Amino acid sequence: MPIVRQLAQMGHPVLRRVAERIADPALPALRALVDDMLVTVADANGVGLAAPQVYEACRMIIIASRPNPRYPHAPEMEPTVMVNPELLRSSDEREHGWEGCLSIPGMRGLVSRYRKVGVRYQTREGVVREAEYEGFLARVFQHELDHLNGVLYVDRLESMLDLVTEKEYARQQQGGS
Prior knowledge:
Number of helices: 3
Strand order of the largest sheet: 1-2-3-6-7
Shape: globular
Number of strands: 8
Distance between the termini: 47 Å
Helix content: 10-25%
Order of helices and strands: HEEEEEEEHEH
Largest sheet: 5 strands, antiparallel
CATH class: Alpha Beta
Radius of gyration: 16 Å
CATH architecture: Alpha-Beta Complex
């Protein structure tokens, strides 16, 4: 039975390591990890999750976008498990957007990301797939891929002035001054 895993918090070394490539996506232990990550990302109102965030230094992410209290305008999609994901190509166009992270609770940062990306990954059965993402989903993919390389969104801030608390972010989104 899947369990909700504890989330590694900023400062824990697992979040700063480059995650190991997965040789066999079909291993039973990996299947249990996938199931745990799926319930964990849903429980935490996340739109994505990387294995290092649940203390597993392997190259696997989940994109699970759906409207929730943290991201009320997120697009709805079936959760997608990506083993050994790669960025194949990206648009020249970049855009700034607010990001949060389950490993950095209570904060949001304004981060520049590629507007469109082409990606390759393996499914949990080991089948190689390619996909294109743009906008919010491209941002989620890039954010989660960064986790596999030991990078957090705060590393990508152009200025510390682009970092706010969740409370201040909510106030600004409601048009507060």
